[in-house]
User: Fold these one by one.
Assistant:
Number 1:
Amino acid sequence: MAEENATSTYSMAEPYDQAIELLRRAISAANLTITGEFDVSERIHKALMLCIAPCRVLFAHPSSGDAEGMSAEPESAVFTPLHIVVSARGRHTQVHILRVLPRQQAAVGDVQLARLSRMETAVSQAIEKIAMRASMAL
Amino acid sequence: MDTASFLNSYILEERFPKALKLIRTALGSMEVAVVGELDITEKPHPGASSLSRSTILLVDCPLLDLEALALDRAAAVFLPLHVLVSAAGEQTKVSVVNPTGIFNARFPAGSVGPLDRLVSRVGMALESLVQQHA
């Protein structure tokens, strides 16, 4: 059986800075909260004096409901909050998120998998309003 | 798939605040930095005498970040790494999950090695704390 990808990638026609703002608004409109951000490119630049294309991680969390009690379990804490990666790609932008795979390919419990899957669905639906899956993008 | 193969837990014989400081120092000695912290302490139940604190430390190593992201920025989906620190009375429990072990899937090109090494460094840092107390 061919392995499936662990992540999903979306393409946005907008340049990086504009794309991030659109993404923040889309995430907020989907009843999700961005609990923090991590600028990977800035981190690498400061630590190693190397420049890479802009890349930032947004940490997304449901605004209510599934957020409670989920993160305190180790198997959930590894992916909560969910990472939304925004990276510049020339004049356009790519967005990457975790792809929650079926039970047969996961080593977490059913309840945790279901919650993670719901969160991933909410995030991907928010992203799909402003971006296109990379496999379909020109 | 086997949960035990990717989940490592450590018990530190220190209360939560001191354990947190020791963890930061131990990680630093392995060139791993705490780049963020998320307090996920649950709301207390009515009648509860105290809060049981939990926090997720976001940890990374810039060199391993660079290596993981070199071929595919999607690797940042798994960076920084999450380390769960929870108060357990007079002790503190620390859990680290290797994301490459959660799903049987194809990870972004070139990311598995650096992710595994990051988890390994975190593990060595935490083991040094456990051994210090032993």
Number 2:
Amino acid sequence: MDTILRIDMGAQKGPVFKKEPAGDYAGKGGRDMTSSIVSKEVPPQCHPLGEENKLVIAPGLLSGSAAAMSGRISVGCKSPLTGGIKESNAGGQAAQVLARLGYAAIVIEGQPANGDLYKIFIDKDGVKIEADNSLKMLGNYDTVEKLKKDYGDKVAIMSIGPAGEMKMGAASIAVTDMEMRPTRHCGRGGTGAVLGSKGVKAIILDDAGMGARKPKDPEKFKAANKAWVEGLKKHSVTGEALPAYGTNVLTNIINESGGFPTYNFKVGQFDGASKISGESEAALEIERGGLATHGCHRGCVIQCSGIFNDKDGNYLTKQPEYETVWAHGANCGIDDLDTIAMLDRMDDDFGLDTIEMGATIAIAMDAGLAEFGDGEAAIKLLKEVGEGTPLGRILGNGAAVTARAYGLERAPVVKGQAMPAYDPRAIKGIGVTYATSTMGADHTAGYAIATNILKVGGDVDPLKTEGQVELSRNLQVATAAIDATGMCLFIAFAILDQPETFQALLDLLNSFYGLELTADDVTALGKSILKNEREFNKGAGFTAVHDRLPRYFHNEPIAPHNVTFEIKDEELDKLYNW
Amino acid sequence: MDPKESVRVILQVEEQEYAGLMAKMPVLLQKGFMVKVQTGRSLGHFFRRQLNLTPEYIAHRISTVFLDGKPVDDIDAALLRDRSTLALSGAMPGLVGAVMRRGSFYASFRDTISYRDEGEKGSSGPRRDEGMIRLKLFNLVMKDLGPGFLETGIYLEADSFTGFLANRQDTIPQICRTAQVNGTAVEPGDLMGHPLFKIQPWVRLAIERNK
């Protein structure tokens, strides 16, 4: 994994590629790679949909190896949604296949002069870039079916749907799962629009003839992987709750806490929560012959995904995640899992971020375009996005744009990106992360990873209000580091509770690369990633004013606890003081 | 609520159908059901003495506790009151899942909603008496404790129960061998329309399995 593939889509005689050594980017992976390249090579003031932006695709440091859970692929660019730097990652098969092909990154640059749409095929023998306008405006499902006929069913495909071709701010990049369905998405921030602006519809990756990447010390690696898997399986979150119920196991908990944003963040509890909970979803999936336990990539031992069949027992979509169930469910007042699953399917097919679209539809409901709770109306609004109608183009550009078009103040966004499924007034610490993350409102930017081991600037007193800012900082640093490895972020829970499992992760990295990394090195990695991202955002015009929640979160209490977001601006501004 | 105002319902099921019937129950257990408790006692007392849970189970399995919507850190300081709502869960994923856990390192993230006993000033807490609380069971705790509660009997609002039956008109009669209402045998298929559910506001539901 020491080669970077550069593809210039705007070359005079048509797209060209070159392979080069990783050079200054050697030893980087995942988010470290994407943020390094974007911050170094993309002018921060460029237009996100213009030729100067670059789309970087990078597997993680352990992707393509035998390490369990190493199947995340990162995509980075300047975001058309936020205007700042973006890293968005997904599961599925692409990370492992790209890594086994020996690529540390693909960098897609420039823009085709004509209106052709391209597919890029990469295997061990080389790279082929071909125009294929028969793919134009196909949904991701039809795109994958078509490409399977030409390339077989053992490949991994990254693709955009109509939303990406129409360069909408909420457009995602789909990644095929083990069953070759386009169900995993680099969802946040409009990465699909950037790929669409480069004229690329699909990237087909075929690692036939390539084996797993080999560690420097195979015996130590094998032992570390064994300890790693044991740690993940024995932990009640990664070994039981997530496999049984998926991420949607959170619905009942967050609802009970009063932090479950409902009716466009108006209240913190939803009467219909138990109907759309992970427990109810799992029971329904099993009843209909689907699966409540399913992995999104080979080597996943947590298996938090599932298969959701319709009433007739036919495949409809992958198990909708907590964020999707919240966004299209409680936030829109919808308490029907079949409606939510249909919306999830449509998001996957059109190539849209489910969080952004759920937040957007809720704003549309607040604007009077539909009633809260009207599932049929929500489906119709989403159809307009896929069809690219004038209303659809507004909606497809996300919550902030839609709120502006309809004159609404109450748009729950930071840096233009919609908030996920936790109200920051009830759970203030997550609000700190929403406000300060380089990515915009992002719940995964500050994850719980052994912060009692990874210390930044000394120990934190978690009981003090100021401690929340420091905790958020620690978490953002740790998460950035994990995002570089290709590991699924859900390893975090086992690492949090089991120091021996965190050690197993360090041992995996060290034995694979012949290093002697410590927790301090992991911290340093996370800090350097965030530093690059902050610098880019500064160059793009971001200031402290952008590290804030919308003002109404400070003024409008949320029921049932009737609390507001109280963290002072001065505290937020201290987050990056290290 | 007065337990005397409840209709006693027993669903009887063969051993081989038991798992199938239990698979239908999550919606009732998540929404919550009423149980008799000793008010004025701590949650720790309720777990150890009333539910007879071991210290290991309490420590490792009931990782997340909400009392009246507020995350609880110290189960021996949190006191049960009449009509409280208690929700029990295993350890949860995500940062926010970790935040909500008992004694979480990240508890400050949710300090404005954390449970603090706010009894009347100068009082020594709620009076010790008999009362009822709503108990909600989620995820792994639901799997572990739900069957025991259903075998002992749970109190539900009558319209919740009939709503539950209405959504399962095709399946419950197939799974349940017989049913009883206030001691009288009833065809499971006829349960939903039973006149007593329109008169009494509460149902006491129990499941009997024939081994």
Number 3:
Amino acid sequence: MQSELESQPTIPLEFTGNAKEYFGIWIINILLIIATLGIYSPWAKVRNHRYFYGNTILNGAGFDYLASPIAILKGWAIAAVLLAIYFGFSSILPPLQLAFGIAFLLALPWLVVKAMRFRLHNTAYRNIRFNFAGDYGKAIGIYTGLLVAMPFTLGMIYPFYMHRQTQFIVDNSQYGRSSFKFLARAGDFYAIYMMLLLVFVVITAVIGGIITALAPSIAPLIFGPSADQGAATQQIGMLMQLFLVPLMLSVYLFAFSYTQSRIGNLTWNNLQLDQHRFKSTLTTLGLMGLYLTNILAIIFSLGLATPWAKVRTIRYRIGHLSFMPHGDLDNYVQGLANNTSAIGEQIGDAFDFDIGI
Amino acid sequence: MIKLEAIRYDGKTSAQQSVLLQLVDDIIYVTAPDLNQVYSAADTELTPHLGRLKTQLRFIDGSICEFERNPEIDHALEGFKQSKIEGAAFRLESRLRYIALAVLLTLVTVFALIQFGIPKAAEWIAYRIPIELEAELGEESLAFFSKYMCTESKLDLQRQDALRQQWLARMGYKTLAPAAIHFCNSAQIGPNAFALPGGHIIFTDQLINLAKDDRELLGVFAHELGHVRKRHALRHILQDSATALIMVLITGDIGTISSLSASIPTLLIQTKFSRRFESEADDFAMGFVERQQISAGYLADILQRMEETINSKESSPNSFISTHPLTVQRLKKLRDYHTACLQNRSSDTEGEQPVCGSLPTL
């Protein structure tokens, strides 16, 4: 089996879940969350994660999500209490809001580190766990430092921030005792965002120009002839406002799909574990089509198409991801035992944002 | 005895191994050419059944065995440590009737939440936000009004001030006062009055001129004051925009809503206040005027005249007086209130006389 692996250049990842199966899980999650006034949420989260991790197959084995719902419940309960204290005090003493805001900014890196530790330690592949070794000291420079600097640079350091953030997470992630490495540079991120800005400006200018040129002729067709110049201007204004919303939405969809595909590819293509690499082939148009059809389906189904959309999206992303092994896959050794039932991590989990595969 | 083929991962390295599992009562044997392990069910964790995922037995030594689950072996697996909660969830997830039930229940709950929960939440928040914070929203709405809806009032300035004095004098000194009372001229809107965020009240010249008695205008003022007191403008915005509602719920900051949506003034003007809001404002107005010893019938009279005037021209989309049946209901309620008030007064021979206005002379 080993020699087969080494001679195969790429192994595609597979997603083996389906919408019908997941719909049942999803709707029962909602039912039980409503029926238990939210207490079932940790179990719902665990089942959701296990379903998607477990159906992601790499080289014949799936991924495991091992978190205990009780542990999550404890962490969330504490986080809820902290938030309640924050809201309670800040409404009584508004000046406290500023103090809390600053405290939150300082706590953010801590929460990110804790959430990553909880998530990675509870993820396993072939019964070897992942780990996160990042520490607060490194995190604060990135999450607090760069975030605070953001407005001062008018957002110009945003690609730099993205690079540093991804590098921090990847370089500190481990499988067994081996570390991941992030090979991309800040410049790669800048290239993507600069291109986006360029395309955005060009598209807005072109379409804006077309609408401005055509509006005076189209407005009377829709609103009827106008009495005077003032009314005509008003009509043109209304027409442009009418088109503005769908235009902005489309541009936003494009920008979002563009960054998701480019950044996604950049991240995976530059991820290295020992000598193994990944290959990601997401496309802007592919994602745009996916998101658009998802949104329409969800709206017209009153939300019931959400599980279908989720499965579809994961299947698309995983379908465009493959693994390029270079060497032995059987030699990964379990990391040193570290206890992550610590409350800090469970609280961090409450603030965990789904980065997604 | 149950025999199963499984894949074993020993938890020490990432290598996999094909093994044979044998369950005999509550003992489990894991065997392979170079392996012979024995475990007890009580020490072994069984991962919950989820979709078609392979199930794992997680042993006390950190190794796991993964196999395909099927209904025949479920019975034999009962002795293992497993989550009752997730077991129950799986039974619900895999039966169509429970899924259908869940869909129904979810739709009903979400619908109820939207119909009742949102207005309640909007009300709860609105009362907790000081009206001063609505200032920015108010400014925007006023600007929209003067730009698109009406022009400068043609009313005599003295008349404007006299009315303002009249009305403000009637209010108790402790009560929430309107931020400002405006007059403006709009043939487009016709006779009407509006309560905007921030406590701004606007009367059209056409309404002032339609009144046959200043007591009628006091009634309208009382009605608009009701909108201000009950924070209807803000509640309207919050109810109609779930996004705005959620944002305000979380941040308590309504300044951002005005920047969030440039269409809020349009929303306020183009869509009517709900029946409920009009009813609340009417209730407030009725109590207010009768306490001033003025009949609620005056408000009813001008309401009726407004309806007739507006219906006689092409119906304006900007009217706050909505459909006929609703106005008829409101008129009846206002007049009945006055009648009931008089009856209470005459029938109550002992104790204090309830305050009531006298009938309007037509």
Number 4:
Amino acid sequence: MKRRHFLLSAAAAGGALVVGWGALPPRGRVGSANLLPERDAMIALNAWVRIADDGSAVLAMPRVEMGQGVHTALPMLLAEELRLPLTGIRIEQPPEDTIYGNVAMLTLSMPFPPAEGEAGSRTLRYRAGEWMLAKIGRELGLNVTGGSSSVADAWDVVRLAGATARQLLVEAAARRWRVPSAQCVLADGIVSHPGGHSAPMAAFASDAAGRAPEASVQVTPREAWRVIGRPLPRTDVPSKTDGSAIYGIDVRPTGLRFAAVRMCPVLGGDLARLDTEAISARPGVLGVVRLPPAHGATGGFAVIAADSWTARRAADAAAVEWAAGPGAGLDGTRLLAELREAADRGDGHVFRESGDVMRRFAGRARVVEARYEAPWLAHAAMEPINATAQYADDRLTVWAPTQVPGFARKAAIAASGLDEDSVTVHVTLLGGGFGRRLEVDVIAQAVRIAMAMPGSPVQTLWSREQDTTHDFYRPAQAAWLAAALDPDSRLVGLRIRSAGDAVVPNWLGRNMPILAADLPDKTSSEGLFDHPYAIEAQRIEHVRVRSGVPVGNWRSVGHSHNAFFLESFIDEIAAQAGADPLAFRRGMLTESPRHLAVLELAAERAGWDDPPAPDRRLGIALHESFGSIVAQVAEVGLDGGRPRVHRVVCAIDCGTVVNPGIVAQQVEGSVVFGLTAALHGRIDIASGRVRQDNFPSYPLLTLAEAPRVETHIVTSTRAPAGVGEPATPPIAPAVANALFALTGRRLRRLPLDIG
Amino acid sequence: MLELRINGTTTSVEVDPAMPLLWVLRDLLGLTGTKFACGVAACGACTVLLDGAAVPSCVRPVSTVVGLPVLTIEALRRPDPHDDHHRILVALREAWIEEQVPQCGYCQSGMLLAATALLIDQPDPDDEAIAGSIRNLCRCGTYQRVREAIRSAAARLRQTDR
């Protein structure tokens, strides 16, 4: 899928990028220094870069650190352009402004199908909608960390902001020394001129401030990179290994109180009756607050005490009557049956159509059909849902581990009734995000609670049970797939109809209704309609089935189930065709050389053609998501009759790599995340209640079960693409395909159950 | 008043004796390095050492640790080079940095304490021993680096012991 470059031309061949100042649109994303507040000992040169007196540089950091390494990768871009070591860059959360909006995520992840070469009158409508949405998005400037987009989004902007700052400093030095700026050099924080002049860059910051560069700004060409591409140690690792890193749950403003939340056990329900007096009479209880449903949260109440444990015990002991509401009718078994029905017979939105599908499947065509499905899944980040807020002196301060600082602030404004200038949101580290912290349900709760206790900061904390049973789940999906083979067993026709609820309209509906257009959500079908195989006739469609179960973004979104459906099915067809799974795929990648290269790399490094180890077999899967192509080979055996994954060889083409150490970490972590879902993950819903509630009933992969993961990165000069999610989708099909090779049994349902 | 010995320092707290040690540490003493993640001793994020043994502090009433030496991740602020447990924790922490173990990092305090207990008990664990002993959950999937870092720290400790 093509990535749109809103700002700069796509002439990035070789990495040299020359930007004429006049070519930038007026609201160029480098922006004005006025956006950053005045601070002692620091001078802003644009909306991203400040130069400090001590010789360091401070990068505006709108994106949040949830383990994906963005607080190292983005500073590396600035370190490159300012010619500083990474240790010379500090980061600071900037004030909220549209200039810090995430443009890449919007263009890659928004609900419309790609407007690429498909016939039909609806294409124009979607093109127009997509353009408008992106424009609105840029004007609204959504600060979102997610969609594996932070590096892709920052790539041009931060480098340009850094290069511009460098240019301004050098020109200021040149003016002071009365020498040509082209002869001045910035290196290691010092500007110098061969004539003998030399001074720290900070000396020129105030002279540089407020100016525009005189000459064209050039970002550092690839061949001169000294930082980008190196596996530099992450800047957040030291504090994450000595207990000093502060997550949302760790903030301790003076006088902090603690609130335990308890919500209606039925999804979407509310509080009916609460014996507030009895709760308040308990020793240690400082307050009781009703919490109406808001931003998708189920209604409930909170108990405030001087410590978390006292609050939690009081909340759990409280006598309460719930109003279950319509959610009481939610039944997972029935909903799954509806999904299967819709996948078989439903009226879907067609995301891809080419060739003459009906002819290919007609008459005496050899057809292979299969039905697949995947369950709801919870996020289960290790840091439970929490947020802290304080309402004092007519001001509201919020501390939150959030992926959406802008939405968080809006929710805080709405919940408090205060005006925008009175509300500040401080973003902390996140103990895992995975898409769960794209929601602001807890923010609204925390603010309501703080408003009930003016003066005191209050930390609102969910228990693990509340977290697991009140998630925004990865939606369950069912799919019907059919393949037509010609007499030579080549795949010549592919039909897919998948069914499930749509994530993006639900998420936007909770957070930014103006963007929640009722148009088909491409994320429902991503990974199915956009596969790389050359298949002559195709129809790929999706039926949206609204269920009433709260659904949200879960690491890799639609790819998380669709890769399992398609890559397992491709393997099934290969088996029917009597073909080796690798060779079969190879034959269909004639028009996708990059995909082929990734597939071959994984197969080669895994020893695909070597004789298999006794009692182990290999399975392969190929999948593109978030702009990156990943192939995985899983080596699987059985242990006590259950699947045991020993090794996963992963090849990834993610474009230009900023930090290969971080890429390897993300691949390893994504595999474990996806493998947990493949082997264990399921959320069951009965009478509107989620049955799983804590790790004993919703198990995560353990160290003992974790495979050895090897990462092989394809060298590329394309712009950086996604790294946080793309290695999650392929692991389930790779393991399922290995299990087929091992046992002859084809598993079409997750979690994989060989018993 | 209960008298607690934490990281070599004695502290008195006025607290309900049934309160789990985890919350005494986090909410009363401001030691937030030990984490809450499940509350039912299923995940290891709250692991501290009690007299050298790994315990889940989320289910351990504070009254039961009175007078016993408690080791938390904050021992790394002022590690005692003569204390064997501190030495092991320091070596593990250095290995954790070298191997670039943490991603989100939330589970890592518990991991480090669990690893410390393992090396106290078994100075030269193989992969199977590590898998059998380290039951801490990590959602970010840092397991293979945890394993490498434990092996690396163990090797280094054995070298300096010679």
